Amino acid sequence: MHRRARVGLLAGLLLLTACGTQSAAVTSGPSLTERTPRSLGPTPFTTVHPDPTPAPPRPTCPASGASITVGPVDAALGHRAVVVKLTNCRSTPITVDGYPDIAVLDADRRAMNLTITRGTSYMAIDPGPKKLLLHKGETALAAVSWSNTVEAGDDKASGTYLAVARGKGEHPVVWPVDTDLGTTAKVTLTAWCRTFPT
Question: Are 4 and 123 in contact (CB under 8 A)?
């Protein structure tokens, strides 16, 4: 694992604001990563656009108490990563266990056909699944990483949005994230943790 890449990822985390997001109801069922690519339309997710000004968006707290934000893309030698931050925004504790449930969406908000793996990548070490109890205001982090490697003869893929839920079957939020996947069509995901291993 390259220390410089990890330092860059942690530096990107500092840019993550404590802004809240809105969640939209979706029917509990298969993991986002298991669904057949289809048009999501305007209703399954609530798209959250980061405020272009320095001021963060008006905070909101979903019924689950799990407010999710996504940081800026951090880059290193053809590799990319974003830090996902989950904050308990309600007065009672919530639990976070295992890995986030994610899907990469194209510009039309269609789920892309990708390979999503769990583990360590060039950009982040996977601490492994562990149940976390978060009190009000406490946070959990996860990293979503990919490579923009391009191989001759293959079609390049690029996502426009990242749909993130606390876990399988939970309500996701959608955040604009430019995922220039090259021809790899692969994303690597770490488990929720309080701080990233170094």
Answer: no
